[in-house]
Design a protein that fits this description.
This protein has 374 residues and is of the alpha/beta class. The chain has two domains: 192 residues, Glycogen Phosphorylase B (Rossmann fold, 3-Layer(aba) Sandwich); 175 residues, Rossmann fold, CATH 3.40.50. Helices cover 40% and strands 17% of the residues. Helix 3 links the parallel strand 4 and strand 5. Helix 3 packs across helix 5 and helix 7 crosses helix 11. The longest helix is centred in the C-terminal third of the chain and has 18 residues.
Length: 374
């Protein structure tokens, strides 16, 4: 198959999943064409079956905002027509699904019928998508996609709740490339903590919805009982506020801000505990990545997270903002060696249920169905 993949090329979950999916499909012999405004961050190695088509937006004095959706549509039409694509798989509803619909109509005028698969990832539905100004377009785009998938049952329910559609939505969870997550060996753990210190880790894009200040408050409570270091991976608009809070709570000297890390599995390998304090997560890919590295997770119980992190087995769940409970659960794991060892094993075992090898056939089935019915 020749598959066009439209995604955001950044560190966010949707872009990472889309890129890894494309790489896996290419490894099976399919021809993959990424269509986006810059090369995806996870697309770092050369592969004979992978092609990148940059969406370049021209600047005109007339436009206050660059018309990315229009340019994206034109690029999809161009790639589909000249590369002979069999389908377009668009990740994240805004603006990819609506641009794909318009591209489909333009291609029809040229005698080309190309199916569209839309994958909903989270904030495109639960946060940005709920904006009334987007609702009609998103509802229409979902309804007129040839197939729609969502990364969790929670996201599927949210989609039906917030949008006017009766389109069948198939749940295909995010996946993990397990081979990348190997036991601690040559990692320089000593560069971050002494042997007697525990390492607590958080990975995100530092947006308000992640509630990273809760991570800092939990860490402060842990520090009164154990020796520990906090490692924060990622960057974003909330970083400066988090830095200020670390200074205010006097934990800054025991906190490391690593910024954006391309190969996050390399730092997850030496974590003793992973904290995910989000106000909402439609799936919780960061938690799954930690679990693949055999790291127990203490998280909120919102959205799709409970579909990944199993309470009292792979870690613990608590209500959003319940810093006391999350600190208590964290301390229980970090001070009970037998429990920690068991949860590490359980976390890895749970992550194996989301392996690429188990999830990829579900996408292949969707592709085959839409091509057959076109």
């Amino acid at each position: 198959m020749k598959i066009g993949i439209v995604c955001y090329p950044t560190y966010g979950g949707s872009g990472v999943v889309a890129t890894e999916l494309g790489k896996a499909l290419a490894a099976q012999g399919h021809q993959i064409h990424f269509i986006t405004y810059s090369q995806p961050v996870r697309l770092i190695e050369y592969h004979a079956n992978i092609f990148f088509h940059e969406v370049v937006v021209s600047e005109y004095p007339l436009f206050q905002y660059e018309p990315y959706e229009v340019t994206l549509t034109s690029k999809m039409v161009d790639v589909a027509e000249h590369e002979g694509l069999d389908l377009l798989h668009v990740h994240y509803a805004i603006p990819h699904a609506s641009a794909a619909y318009l591209a489909k109509q333009i291609l029809k005028e040229k005698g080309i019928n190309i199916p569209i698969v839309t994958t909903l990832h989270g904030t495109d539905i639960t946060l940005v998508g709920k904006d009334p100004s987007f609702e009609p377009v998103i509802s229409f785009s979902i309804q007129h996609s040839d197939a729609v998938t969502a990364v969790s049952e929670s996201l599927k329910r949210d989609t039906y709740k917030h949008f006017k559609t009766n389109k069948e939505i198939k749940v295909i969870p995010n996946f993990i490339c397990l081979d990348k997550y190997k036991p601690l060996n040559n990692c320089s753990r000593g560069a971050f903590a002494k042997e007697s210190e525990k390492i607590i880790m958080h990975v995100s894009n530092f947006r308000k919805v992640k509630r990273i200040e809760d991570v800092v408050r939990i860490f402060r409570k842990l520090r009164s009982h154990i020796n520990a270091k906090l490692i924060l991976v990622g960057d974003g608009p909330e970083r400066i506020n988090v830095e200020h809070l670390c200074r205010e709570l006097e934990v800054y000297n025991d906190t490391r801000f690593l910024g954006k890390v391309k190969n996050v599995e390399e730092v997850l390998a030496f974590a003793d505990l992973f904290l995910l304090t989000s106000e909402h997560e439609s799936f919780g890919l960061a938690a799954l990545e930690a679990m693949a590295a055999s790291v127990p997770v203490v998280s909120t119980n919102t959205g799709g997270i409970p579909e990944v992190n199993i309470h009292a087995k792979t870690g613990y769940l608590a209500n959003v903002g319940d810093v006391e409970s999350m600190a208590k659960f964290s301390l229980e794991i970090l001070t009970n060696d037998e429990l920690c060892v068991q949860m590490r094993a359980n976390a890895r075992q749970r992550a194996e249920e989301f392996s690429l090898e188990k999830i990829l056939p579900a996408y292949m089935k969707v592709y085959e169905e839409v091509i057959k019915s076109k």
